Amino acid sequence: MASIPSKRNAAERSAIDSGRLGVWAGLSGDPIADAVQEAICEGRLPAGTRLGEEELCRVFGVSRTLVRQALQRLGFAGLVTLRPNRSAFVASPTLDDTASAYAARRLIEADIIAEATRHCTANDIRTLRSHLKAQAEAQARGQRSQMLRLLGEFHLIIAGIGGNAILGDFVRQLVPRTTLSLALFERRDLPSCALDEHRLLIDLMAKGDAKAAAQAMRRHLSSDFGRLAVKPDGEPVVDLAAALRLPGNAT
């Protein structure tokens, strides 16, 4: 019997580690990638913004090689779209893509949390509550990029507790897409209830109410989608030096 929690905890760790590749891993140590990521999450770089290599070189005072490495890192994380011979652009998911991703998450994650609720342990609940505390701290500090990463990671932990590796793989593919949409299109004039909704999910899991947890998960993801205002495609004109809050190099 002791081997079951051990396997489940391993799944949790795998979900977190895998998720960090696509839901952003906080500060990467690459100042260019970190600055662009923060600017996207803060709304200073809208979807579709062109990230010209020459301009980024001037802004950061670095070589084109370092800029390209940063853009590749951002492209791997899904934050930037790389186009041959056309530089790079802040990713711009469409409304249809975003709606499809959320619809898939509602279907998959309702089943995942129901299964997780049926066999979660007291330690699983403590892990989730500890993670919720980290979310609240990030929110209090105004760290939007960190907050968005933690909100997505929370769902990956639940997927790990659920124990179905195949469903977990789907969640790891979908969460980065919806997290990006939140970063780009979330309406700041609408209050976010994400922490309260996450707290409710944990409480229902702790009570062992699988049906109510599944319903709450569907409502939570619908609430997330309802706070989005996906804008038409376009290429905004943005002052990169101002958006990145760094002085451009005068040459």
What would you say this structure looks like, in words?
The chain is mainly alpha-helical. Strands 1-3-2 form a 3-stranded antiparallel β-sheet. The chain is elongated, with a radius of gyration of 19 Å. The protein has 2 domains: 3-24 and 94-226, GntR ligand-binding domain-like (Four Helix Bundle (Hemerythrin (Met), subunit A)); 31-92 and 232-243, Arc Repressor Mutant, subunit A (Orthogonal Bundle). It has 11 helices and 3 strands.
Attribute tags:
251 residues; mainly alpha; Four Helix Bundle (Hemerythrin (Met), subunit A); Arc Repressor Mutant, subunit A; three-stranded antiparallel beta sheet
Give the SSE string.
HHEHHEEHHHHHHH
Strand content: under 5%
Average pLDDT, rounded to a whole number, is 85
Shape: elongated
Instruction: Report low-confidence residues grouped into runs of 5 or more.
Output: 1-8, 10-22, 247-251
Count of discrete domains:
2
What's the architecture of the largest domain in CATH terms?
Up-down Bundle
Short description:
With 251 residues, the chain is mostly helical.
